[in-house]
């Protein structure tokens, strides 16, 4: 049995009885019932994910997967392909947005080369996790992004990382870097949902009107040429996806199989989570959606999975920035759940109104 199938088979439903026990504790804390809103939801969900009635977060890790995309040659991004490798070096140097927000959240950042069309060697590459499966995907306007086996290899790379870092008290965040990767993400949600391409396509790095029209046409052509089968998630991923998207799908699957919560970043990360969900819908109960991206297709993805984002801050950077912010909120929820006094502890009369 493959590593992918083993991980999918290991995913179990959350225990409804544990969720009830978590709610019972929340209801006796010194506050009006449900008054901490979604923080209570987050704490209850974490109990269900971990199987621990008193969970704690002791390690926070954000995985930023990097890969190149052949479709960049179609002029669908405001930045050239070289920016992928340049930003990887920026991550490693601690100078990117994800580094700043991860420091704020007390999280580690693990940068993974899963598909960059460049060999990282020598000075400035210490700390890079070299897990390259391909040197960039092929141009989806002309044919499949990857072979099916390449897509599986990328997923299994993510699963292996999840297994390597999984431990009691861990929480994962997802992030990515890949010039032009909003194009395959839009293609994927159009393929899965059947939605009109323009309705799920955004401006990515801030392209102008002419480039946006070209981007929509490129995606439409990619879907016509490749004809991805929405009933086969691996077909969609391999034909119009990306290596970093596949890696994120694997990380989500691997974490879920090990009962580790995953906070998913924006549009591209959610494309990866969507692949995981399409392969096993139980994934949904182990995933937190950090924010609502300005990319139009993101909400369609979230609605398909039945996930409600934490915040809407008009973010569109990626890298894992939204996940870093949301991990702080999950940690706040757990501290409320564990550290707030009960009515009995504080000698306060209960309020059941």
Tell me what you see in this structure:
With about 350 residues, this protein is of the alpha/beta class. The protein folds into 2 domains: about 5-55 and about 335-345, Orthogonal Bundle (5,6-Dimethylbenzimidazole Phosphoribosyltransferase, Chain: A, domain 1), CATH 1.10.1610; about 60-330, Rossmann fold (3-Layer(aba) Sandwich). About 50% of the residues lie in helices and about 10% in strands. It has 14 helices and 6 strands. The protein has a 6-stranded parallel beta sheet, sandwiched between helices. α11 links the parallel β5 and β6. α5 packs parallel to α13 (about 320-340). It is globular and about 70 Å long. It starts with a helix and ends in a 7-residue tail after the last helix. The model has no long low-confidence stretch (mean pLDDT about 95).
What are the segments in which pLDDT stays under 50 over at least 5 consecutive residues?
none
- List the domain count as a whole number: 2
The proportion of residues in beta strands is 5-15%
Mean pLDDT over the residues: 96
Q: Quick one: overall form? A: globular
Straight-line distance between termini: 54 Å
Name of the top-level CATH class of the largest domain: Alpha Beta
Order of helices and strands: HHHEHHEEHEHHHHEHEHHH
User: How many strand units?
Assistant: 6
Helix content: 40-55%
What's the alpha carbon Rg, rounded to whole Å?
20 Å
Q: What is the CATH architecture assignment of the largest domain?
A: 3-Layer(aba) Sandwich
Largest sheet: 6 strands, parallel
How many helix segments?
Answer: 14
Named CATH topology of the largest domain: Rossmann fold
Structural class designation: alpha/beta
Q: What topology, given as strand order, has the largest sheet?
A: 3-2-1-4-5-6
Annotated CATH homologous superfamily of the largest domain:
Nicotinate-nucleotide-dimethylbenzimidazole phosphoribosyltransferase (CobT), large domain
């Amino acid at each position: 049995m493959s590593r992918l199938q083993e991980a999918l088979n290991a995913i179990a439903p959350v225990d409804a009885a544990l969720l009830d026990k978590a709610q019972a504790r929340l209801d006796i804390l010194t506050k009006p019932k449900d008054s901490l809103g979604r923080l209570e939801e987050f704490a209850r969900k974490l109990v269900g994910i971990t199987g621990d009635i008193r969970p704690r977060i002791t390690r926070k890790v954000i995985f930023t997967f990097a890969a190149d995309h052949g479709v960049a040659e179609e002029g669908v991004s405001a930045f050239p392909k070289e920016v992928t490798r340049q930003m990887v070096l920026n991550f490693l140097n601690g100078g990117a947005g994800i580094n700043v927000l991860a420091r704020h959240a007390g999280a580690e950042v693990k940068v993974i080369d899963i598909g960059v069309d460049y060999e990282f060697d020598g000075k400035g590459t210490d700390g890079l996790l070299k897990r390259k499966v391909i040197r960039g995907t092929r141009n989806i306007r002309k044919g499949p992004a990857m072979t099916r086996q390449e897509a599986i290899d990328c997923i299994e790379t993510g699963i292996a990382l999840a297994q390597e870092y999984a431990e009691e008290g861990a929480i994962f965040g997802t992030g990515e870097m890949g010039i032009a990767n909003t194009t395959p993400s839009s293609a994927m949600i159009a393929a899965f949902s059947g939605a009109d391409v323009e309705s799920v396509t955004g401006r990515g790095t801030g392209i102008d009107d002419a480039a946006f029209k070209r981007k929509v046409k490129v995606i439409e052509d990619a879907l016509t040429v490749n004809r991805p089968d929405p009933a086969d998630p691996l077909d969609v991923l391999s034909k119009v996806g990306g290596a970093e998207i596949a890696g994120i799908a694997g990380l989500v699957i691997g974490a879920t199989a090990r009962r580790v919560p995953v906070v998913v970043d924006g549009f591209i990360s959610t494309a990866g989570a969507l692949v995981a969900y399409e392969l096993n819908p139980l994934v949904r109960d182990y995933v937190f959606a950090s924010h609502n991206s300005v990319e139009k297709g993101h909400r369609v993805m979230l609605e398909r999975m039945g996930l409600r984002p934490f915040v809407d801050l008009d973010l569109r950077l990626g890298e894992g920035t939204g996940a870093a912010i949301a991990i702080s909120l999950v940690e706040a929820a757990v501290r409320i759940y564990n550290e707030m006094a009960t009515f009995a502890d504080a000698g306060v009369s209960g309020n059941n109104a």
